[in-house]
Design a protein that fits this description.
Pfam family, one: DUF4271
Number of helices: 10
Keywords: Membrane, Transmembrane, Transmembrane helix
Strand content: 15-25%
InterPro entries: DUF4271
Protein name: DUF4271 domain-containing protein
Structural class: alpha+beta
Order of helices and strands: HEEEEEEEEHEEHHHHHHHH
Largest sheet: 4 strands, antiparallel
Radius of gyration: 26 Å
Shape: elongated
Organism: Raineya orbicola
Strand order of the largest sheet: 1-10-5-8
Amino acid sequence: MRNFISFTLLYFIFSNQLLAQIIEKKVVSLEKELLYFSQSYNQYVAYTPATHQNAQLLHFWLKPSEYTAYDLVLYLQEEAYWFINHNLQRKLASGWHHFSLDSLSQKYGYQPIFCTLYARKGNFLKKIAIGYLKNDFSKPFNEQIDKNYTYIIRRNAVILLIALLLGYAVIRQVDFKLLTGYLQLSKFWNIQRRMDNSLFLRPFAGSNILFLLNYTFLLAVFFYFLGLTSEGKYNVLLIGKYLDKDLEALSTKSLAWAFVIILIGSFAKFLLISIMASLLGISRVINIHFYEYIRISHFFYLPLTLILLYLALQVPFHLEYWHNFFKLSLGILYAIRFIAVGVIINKLGEFRKLDFYSYLCVVELFPLLLYWKLLFFS
């Protein structure tokens, strides 16, 4: 009996080590994502091996477009059938299987797919993850690709850092006073709004448009590199659709997409401010609101972008460890910007409080809640 127990323990220890070692790179473990349809509750519940050990049907949601560089990896103890959106795909023999998520993404796009595994016996699924299998030579995970990946990240970081410095140098030569107004730390809280400031009068003219273009480029660089911290998932905000963590995405096309989307977003912000302020009869706050919005955003995005560029140069293969840091920083940034802009506009004090709160809710609070949803709940 003791020999049997010892043999059983050794078998499970050895098999678990084998299961762990055969995966070359595991990005996400999907064991906790499995679902079981409970007849008593008449709905899907989280699968637990101890409670649902006889389950013959296991379900899970998958977003292939979030992990296009990897595979869906399965280890089956029994033969099973694989369904996608309730449609039978194929019969799977026992053993290891891997499916290209890039191929699934091309077929199903950005929509999540509902996957089902069916077997005639329970406890048939031993491993499910997203990653690579060992000895899978079809994947570009060799040393040469790693060196190219590192080189491209560092090269782009150097080029974009130089481009940013040149942009600020040009603005300094064209309008030094405008630049210092945005960069001086002493003026961040002690705001002196002078109505002769050209940005209040002509937000999209002269040196102002030059600064706004440089500000847009700064944000594009930030979100461009932020896509490399997302562990194969979408980047924060909708820009993530165009910024994936692979070699092809490290191109000028991704940066150009980010620049265009942010530039359109800035104009849309100004248009939203103008429409709401005009409807509520507080048109005098339009340029002030837009100026403070850009100034506060720039004040925070500049150091965050420099930190991200430094990390891209120093630790290009550990950028994913900083994803939560930047995501939390953005959440705090947006909250501070909302409070600061609200205080500044409220100090004008020449309009009804109801108009003020209605205006602020539509122009600032609703976008803030949307940002937070995209950051933390998507």
